[in-house]
């Protein structure tokens, strides 16, 4: 499983983000390209401990049981549910969101596992830094595939 803490895996993700254009269309889902970038950026805030959304009762109940979904080798399914804290519905500006997402990914990777959040994932609960690194890669990969890159 790829891990965003591995520099070559981070660079591969950044390269794919660079292939996106303002006209990129989703294969599934309701978000446009700028909203998807803002969504991924908001998720990066969670991974870095900048944002700490409240845990949902359903996540507290079943999150620990299904936690491997976020860091195993199986791709995420199209139209997977998202946590409300990172649901983006307002209009966003493509270039700004792309730049911010790349900046946050680079900062997360540069900070390394030792500075990864110790806060629980809003749905899955407690994750190790390695699980956060794999889950972050998997989440970004999922949305880049959504937009065909």
UniProtKB/TrEMBL annotation:
It comes from Paenibacillus gyeongsangnamensis. This is DUF1569 domain-containing protein.
């Amino acid at each position: 499983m790829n891990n965003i803490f591995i520099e070559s895996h981070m660079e591969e993700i950044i390269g794919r983000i660079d292939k996106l254009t303002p006209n990129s269309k989703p294969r599934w889902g309701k978000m446009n390209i700028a909203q998807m970038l803002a969504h991924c950026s908001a998720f990066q805030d969670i991974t870095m401990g900048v944002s700490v959304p409240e845990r949902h009762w359903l996540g507290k109940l079943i999150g620990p049981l299904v936690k491997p979904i976020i860091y195993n080798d199986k791709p995420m399914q199209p139209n997977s549910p998202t946590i409300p804290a990172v649901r983006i519905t307002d209009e966003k500006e493509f270039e700004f969101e792309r730049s911010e997402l790349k900046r946050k990914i680079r900062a997360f990777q540069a900070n390394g596992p030792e500075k990864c959040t110790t806060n629980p994932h809003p749905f899955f609960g407690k994750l190790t830094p390695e699980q956060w690194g794999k889950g972050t890669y998997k989440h970004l990969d999922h949305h880049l595939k959504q937009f065909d890159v």
